[in-house]
Specification:
Blueprint (H helix, E strand, L loop, with lengths): L6 E5 L16 H12 L4 E4 L11 H11 L4 E7 L6 H15 L3 E5 L7 H10 L6 H15 L5 E4 L4 E5 L13 E4 L7 H10 L2 E5 L3 H17 L8 E8 L5 H16 L14 H13 L4 E6 L4 H11 L6
Parallel strand pairs: 1-2, 1-10, 2-3, 3-4, 4-7, 7-8, 8-9, 9-10
Antiparallel strand pairs: 5-6
Helix pairs in contact: 2-3, 3-5, 6-7
Length: 321
């Protein structure tokens, strides 16, 4: 894939700003970071999602604010957990944010885990059973897409029933809001691949190696072709966590402290990174582009996001300008 076709986006620290010190009095810093990304000519800004497992600012409220304060960048989630929400309310909220943004919304979405106590408590707090969340996730995506047509919509599934439901507003984007569905090699899940090929406008992956990501891309493309879809139409995004301090020891120490605070432990270890100067980051991005990524979402494992973005804009982004 040609470098000039690669879209670069930045994950904004809606959890990171809550990891150290007192809670900020407002979200001016997030808005300013989004402004840096837009003025720097990048493609997009993204925010993550969690209720109580990894507490943070509510993602769709943040995106609504950013939609009103930006004019060009795509705004997205990496990733939203739709299964924690009711699909009708979610559809209304997403369409409204898309309207505010003038059609710039993209939703990276995942089923969500229930592998540790914090994650299990999150499902309990939301009043949603963790068991069966994959099927619930699929029903929610189908309902959101169905309500987005603007026509009376019927749905009768395992978890939800709708009779002639009519939603306004509808998405501004003619094809509806694109959903990039989480797809990971390490999950070894045929259901995940099939779901992305059937329901997604593309995929988003995290923590896979370039070789593993390439295999996921191939699997989803093959399944999409079997379903009569054009594999080339699917967006392939990779979510990369880096720290760009040129001093490698400082970069690693800062990143480990940040990631440990973020997750409670340094999960995935060497699957994060690279950490170190911009050359290392640019080289790793090139590896994922070669593996099939058309969009790279960069998260800075750092307590100094402003300086990280400045360095990225100065030393990495020009490679793809």
């Amino acid at each position: 894939m040609a470098k000039d076709r690669v879209k670069l986006g930045i994950l904004l620290p809606t959890r990171g700003l809550l990891l150290r010190g007192e809670q900020p009095p407002n979200m001016d810093r997030i808005i300013a970071l989004a402004g840096m990304v837009e003025q720097g000519g990048l493609d997009s800004v993204w925010v993550g999602d969690s209720l109580v497992a990894k507490p943070r600012m509510e993602p769709l409220a943040v995106l609504a604010a950013l939609a009103a304060r930006t004019s060009r960048v795509r705004i997205g989630t990496a990733v939203l957990l739709p299964a924690l929400r009711h699909p009708v309310l979610l559809a209304q909220t997403l369409s409204t944010v898309d309207l505010i943004s003038g059609g710039r919304l993209v939703i990276g979405a995942g089923v969500g885990g229930a592998f540790n106590d914090d994650q299990k408590r999150e499902w309990e707090a939301a009043g949603v059973p963790a068991e069966g969340r994959g099927h619930r996730f699929e029903e929610i995506i189908e309902i959101v897409q169905g309500l987005g047509t603007g026509k009376p919509y019927d749905f009768h599934g395992r978890d939800f029933d709708l009779d002639s439901a009519l939603m306004r507003p509808v998405p501004t984007q003619p094809g509806g809001i694109p959903f990039l569905l989480a797809s990971h090699h390490r999950a070894q899940s045929p259901a995940q691949i099939s779901r992305a090929a059937r329901l997604g406008a593309g995929i988003i992956s995290i923590s896979d190696t370039p070789e593993e990501f390439h295999q996921v891309v191939q699997q989803v493309e093959e399944k999409a072709a079997e379903l009569g879809r054009d594999p080339a139409s699917l967006e392939k995004a990779f979510y990369l966590t880096v720290n760009m301090d040129p001093d490698l020891d400082k970069a690693e120490a800062d990143a480990v402290e940040w990631l440990t605070g973020y997750y409670g432990s340094n999960i995935w270890g060497t699957r994060w990174g690279p950490f170190g100067g911009p050359g290392r980051v640019a080289d790793r991005i090139a590896e994922y582009v070669e593996a099939g990524a058309g969009t790279i979402v960069v998260r800075f494992a750092s307590f100094q996001p402003e300086s990280q973005i400045e360095l990225f804009l100065d030393a990495v982004a020009p490679v793809y300008a």
